[in-house]
């Protein structure tokens, strides 16, 4: 059977050399991004990396300095209105008309997409209010809402039009842990019908729900790809070993002599040494590593494969400045 | 939070996309509803009547029988009030939404920038026309006829029209400056400077040939027939003639509005 080739239809967002400068400041430099359909795409990067700028460009709120981008195959500049009719957006700091109630905000948002029938629009508004747990506050002006309530209303207004693509800029930023957990659940459930492109600093959340990620730094794309590949591509397998009574220099030189060990780092504390050993060949490591560290006079306190965290990869990639690209 | 939709998605009637004024209807509906339900709007109406018609009434009652005092006083007061109102309330129509981020939120929906700007222009125009032109002028018509020099209805409507171009001058200037600048300070500074020039023009010895450049309903105290207030007094009593002042105001308004549209189409939100 032939392996399915990726076509342009498989990607909801595609950017090509997308760049944005504000005067002398280059906010985004030649971004080539591909967001697969029905993915939950985590868009990561430190503050000022260019994440919000990218989102604003996609929404037609800013114009690219150079390059181009399409959403659903439509140009983000010339066909911005029909693109926006199919997407939902939650900005980083959402601001509503403060005199409006939550119900009025949703009604107002709905009318940009649907002209009727009235009863369905009303039902949809009620449904959304329930979805974001604001049914009890539906008729209160939003000026009295807390940050979390605003954020939930923001998510609701982004969802009113059954969007094919949801663009969320830091959606969990002002949510409490329960709100965050609920948000992740909603995002996961939406995967069937929508593509979610979201930025966040909470890497733990990304690892939980995202299937694809891109990391941006100083306006440049460092890496993008399926999360498993990113995790694999960062360091390979890492073993964490805790030993008592080891001759650190001797063991380090014995480990470094192995061709399947790519790097070794050690920290010592009160006679206990904690080792992080990166291996490039999993099989060789399984067969030989324990034998090497279990020498005479050394007590193995802890030994095992360390789960690679996205946070480690993220910090490393940002520190490296993007030398090791995984594409 | 749960997200299961039980509603038949296909039964919704989508809004057609592709129009130049996409989103205008919804924005206008919301904006007009805001005006109607806002206490500030009703206070505005009460204040303009109290300020313009009230002071005119006092002047007429205290003039000792001068029939023309009302016609001089009313455009003066109304002119001041419109400028102040534009500087305090309408100047924020665009710049406030840009600063607070509501413009960015609305424009993340399928709304054209032309639609957004048009909604601001039309709704503020309707609001100004009712609150600052129509109601006070109709009251003034009865004031003039009951207590001062009789004025005819056609003349009153013509005077209203001239005054309306003056209102549009301030409204469109506020929209234009709001689309150019990202803070209230330059908007207010420029509007105050123009306001000050208009006031100063009334008391300066300006060559007759360029009087019309300083069109100001209240600056015709000198009874110079080229001053707009003189025109207003004349049309109220049935003497109609063309003057460049109101025409220039109209042309300026169109230019300001054009700049506002062009500039807003390029604004980075």
Protein topology:
The complex is a heterodimer of chains A (327) and B (269).
Chain A: E1 11-22, E2 25-31, E3 34-36, E4 40-44, H1 51-58, E5 66-71, E6 74-75, H2 80-84, E7 87-90, H3 102-110, E8 114-116, H4 118-131, H5 147-159, E9 165-169, H6 177-190, E10 195-199, H7 203-209, E11 212-217, E12 220-226, H8 227-235, E13 237-244, H9 248-256, E14 261-269, E15 272-279, H10 282-293, E16 299-306, H11 310-320
Parallel strand pairs in A: 4-10, 4-11, 7-9, 9-10
Antiparallel strand pairs in A: 1-2, 1-3, 1-5, 5-6, 11-12, 13-15, 13-16, 14-15
Helix pairs in contact in A: 3-4, 3-5, 8-11
Chain B: E1 13-14, H1 24-37, H2 39-62, H3 69-90, H4 92-100, H5 102-106, H6 113-147, H7 153-180, H8 184-203, H9 228-236, H10 244-266
Explain what this protein looks like in three dimensions.
The complex is a heterodimer of chains A (327) and B (269). In chain A, a hairpin with a 2-residue loop joins strand 1 (11-22) and strand 2. Chain A has helices spanning 51-58, 80-84, 102-110, 118-131, 147-159, 177-190, 203-209, 227-235, 248-256, 282-293, 310-320, and strands at 11-22, 25-31, 34-36, 40-44, 66-71, 74-75, 87-90, 114-116, 165-169, 195-199, 212-217, 220-226, 237-244, 261-269, 272-279, 299-306. Chain A folds into two domains: 8-232, 3-Layer(aba) Sandwich (Rossmann fold), CATH 3.40.50.300; 237-307, Alpha-Beta Plaits (2-Layer Sandwich), CATH 3.30.70.330. Chain A has eleven helices and 16 strands. Chain B is mainly α and 269 residues long. Chain B has one domain. Helices cover 70% and strands 1% of the residues of chain B. Chain B has ten helices and one strand. In chain B, helix 3 (69-90) runs antiparallel to helix 6 (113-147), helix 6 (113-147) packs antiparallel against helix 10 and helix 7 packs antiparallel against helix 9. The radius of gyration of chain B is 21 Å and the shape is elongated. The chains are: A alpha/beta (327), B mainly alpha (269). The interface between A and B is large, with 46 and 37 residues. Strand 8 (114-116) of chain A pairs antiparallel with strand 1 (13-14) of chain B, so a sheet runs across the interface.
